[in-house]
Amino acid sequence: MKKSVSLILLLLIFSSYFILRLDTKGDNSFASEIETSEPYEKIYSDIGYKTVEEAAREFEQHFNQELKLPLRVPPISFTHHFGRFSNLEGDMNDTFEITLISEQEPQSHFKIDVRPIKHKIQFSDKNVSEVFKLNNGSNAKYMEKLSQGFNHLLFENDNWQYMLSIDKDVSNIVTPEILVQIANSIDY
Hints:
The protein is an alpha+beta fold. The protein is 31% helix and 26% strand. The protein starts with a helix and ends with a helix. Residues 1-36 have low confidence and may be disordered.
C-alpha cells in the first residue's frame, strides 16, 4: 500500500511538472520541444518523392510523351513542393503526382495527379457537384463528395487525365473557379 501511494505521488509530481512547464511557456513550445519529427524533405524523400522536375522527367520518359503542368498554383502559401512518379506493374496504375504543402499551415495542401487517358479513373456523376467548360473546350468536373479531406477538379488535356485536389479547409479561398483558372493555365 505504501509503495502504491508513493508511486501515485511520484506520478502526480512528475505530471504536474510538465503541465506547469507547458502553462508557463504559454505558446506550446514545450509540445514542439518533445516533437522530434524529421524534416519534410526527409519524410517525403523516404516515401519516393523527389523534385517535381525530376519526377516529371521520369514520367515523360516512361510514357514517351510531353507533360504540360499548370503555370498557376492556388493563392495560399506553400513551403515545400515535391513530385513523385509511381511506376507500378504495367502502365495501368502509373501516375505522376505533385504535392505542395506548408509546414506552418497544414491546411495549405494542394495536389496534382496525372495519368494517361487510356488508363483514366472513371468517377460516377453522382460525385460531381459542378461542371465547368475549360478554354480548350473540354469539361472539368468539380467534386466535393469524392473524399472527406479534399475537393477535386478532374479534366483531360493532351492524352492525360488531371486531378487537382485542394484541402477542404481552404476551399473558401481556393474556390472551384480558381481551380478552373489553374487548369486553364496548362494551355500556354
